[in-house]
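_Full entry_
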Amino acid sequence: MIQIPKGCKDILPTQSHIWQYIEGVAKETARAYNFREIRTPVFEHTELFARGVGETTDVVTKEMYTFLDKGGRSVTLRPEGTAGVARAFAENGLQGGVLPFKAYYLYSNFRYERPQAGRLREFHQFGAELYGAAGPAADAETISLADLFLKKLGLSHIELKLNSIGCKQCRKKYNEALRAYFEPHIDEMCEDCRTRFAKNPMRILDCKREECKKFTAAAPRILDFLCGDCRAHFEEVKALLDRAKIAYTVDASVVRGLDYYSRTVFEFTTQAAGAQGTVLAGGRYDTLLEQMDVSPTPAVGFAAGIERLIMVMEAEGAPMPAREGVDCYLAGLDGPSRMQAYLLAEELRRQGLSCETDLLERSVKAQFKYADKIGAKYVATIGESELASGAAQVKNMRDSTSQCVEFGALAQYVKRGVKTW
């Protein structure tokens, strides 16, 4: 038997209602902040990610699914959402439209990395992007959206970690300080960090290898190198979060792993799910469009992995929706009765109810067992006498009461009853 590729996972009908619930909360929260859905292609030209995400990042150097199409062009499966949204924003002329531009997405991404709990090679994200606003209020609003989304999911053991990584001028001085600090130790660090030392030393701070972490813990802090404008921006972001009563901790180790970030960066983390503690992360990326040879436009956003969210919700014991059953199951006792049950089911469906009827010619006992398994709220039984009278015996599966209901009134009867469940 052909098996699913490593690092992928089926989302079965017994699980999909949880995904739909999270996606529904995401859409509802985004709508409250006037973010509208955007959908971009599942693959893009490789150059988009190489330039947008950053050539020194692990995503670009190790994790992308890249191949040549039949025209000999290098294309890459989407490894993250922001670069594609930036491309769509610029290519469709949205810079000249109504600003700020606010969009959210719910789609799958692909990275070739070692599968582990909460991290797969095909993974799904809820992300939000805001373009055209450079001020601290845009940062605070985006963080507020993320905070409300997580709270609506019932997550209560989440900590917001906040940092600023400054602008190009701040980081130039900071990178010089990092090189001076790491130079005596660089030969003891991993190969990746030795490469980062020459190209982008700030990426060293994001290394998870133990032999490197013992050096990064005492490294200089970016907050000590912020210019006046970046410091004022960060102070205002904090003040806005304070006024909104959104708790946070300033954590200088938060730098994010992608090259397009600048100024504000943030992570929502938890201890409930073990080592993979980040459930949502993002920040500001004012230079992203410039890296793509497009007129600079300020931007801020975040992304949250849905697989990780489900894992954290389970670990915290957050409320999970029950799988919704069908409104009515129609059981037929013989051939003519099954035909009538089939026709009634079609009528009820067209009136907005969810229905099932027998497709396997089961006995009436087996049909009732099946109706119970699929969570039917009502079971309407039709036999020879019901055909003759034009009315079904309808059983309420919650309290086991029964009532005779005419075929023409069945839809309204079930509709009224379903409202009380």
Observations:
- The first strand starts at residue 36 and ends at 37.
